[in-house]
Amino acid sequence: MSWLVTGGAGYIGAHVVRAFIEADIQPVVFDDLSSGFLDFVPPEVTLVHGTLLDGPLLMRAFEEHDITGVVHLAGFKYAGVSVQKPLHTYDQNVTAMAKLLAVMQDHDVTNMVFSSSAAVFGTPDTDLVTEQTPTLPESPYGESKLIGEWLLRDQAKATKLDHTSLRYFNVVGSGYPDLYDASPHNLFPLVFEALLAGKTPRIYGDDYATPDGTCVRDYIHVADLALAHVTAAQRLEAGESVERVYNLGSGDGVSVAQIMSAMAEVTGIAFEPEVAPRRPGDPARIVASGELAARDLDWKMRHTLAEMVQSAWDARRNAA
């Protein structure tokens, strides 16, 4: 019995795979390696190399492995780029999910944990996002994630599918020295690359209505996120009730200035960030409540900001 982890060679997916192994659940990785890395997949884990749009390959993966559930992380994850590539985004995130659900139905696989996104909320008009906060996505990426949740909802009405979707904001840190965030769009790798190149990191606006004037956001450690995925999978497999959506949030968040200070302290590279004008649409504070996930998924913030930065920096240097 195995759980299929789509996108299991990526930064987040690789952490989920290792969390499954540590929970004595056998994972099978399905990944096209477009943004993931072969080295992120442990040698004892089967890798099915290909795209979810390849129906015959997906069918073979289910036929050749005793799949009992799916953690679906694969997708096109760049919100900004999705505005320029809407059709590509919908193909990767919506069409692919529909194909995956069809193959699951054909093989009587009824459990799915979906890696959704806080992008489904767009720019909420509240500074503490809950599961009841209206979903108003502002990019094709956010829309595609919300459609994914709708697909699960509708398929569950028609079949025996049991599912939950996990929504989260900014994932940082590393749980293992060989797993790192290589995204060209995420804050931590952007700051690290700037520092390593002798450049000054930039922040956008320091006059917001927050304690230090910079934006406050929700940052969670990737290892904590991975554990929540595994706990959700275990509850589904055990037939225990779960909510259809959970926010994985810190409840309080940290400011951009706090992150920059932690970056300087951890890296030992002293710097004062360049302050650029505000970006249009950037709210002062967006933080999610994690109360429901804490109740059901043993969700908690197990790492301090310093630990998040230190683990990310160690993994980045190890990759150099």
TrEMBL record:
Residues 3-249 form the NAD-dependent epimerase/dehydratase domain. NCBIfam families: galE (TIGR01179). Pathway: Carbohydrate metabolism; galactose metabolism. Its cofactor is NAD(+). The keyword Endoplasmic reticulum does not apply. Keywords: Carbohydrate metabolism, Isomerase, NAD. Belongs to the NAD(P)-dependent epimerase/dehydratase family. PANTHER family: UDP-ARABINOSE 4-EPIMERASE 1, UDP-GLUCOSE 4-EPIMERASE. GO terms for biological process: galactose catabolic process via UDP-galactose, Leloir pathway. It catalyses: UDP-alpha-D-glucose = UDP-alpha-D-galactose. GO terms for molecular function: UDP-glucose 4-epimerase activity. This is UDP-glucose 4-epimerase. Gene3D superfamilies: NAD(P)-binding Rossmann-like Domain, UDP-galactose 4-epimerase, domain 1. It comes from Naasia lichenicola. It is an enzyme of class 5 (isomerase). Its EC number is 5.1.3.2.
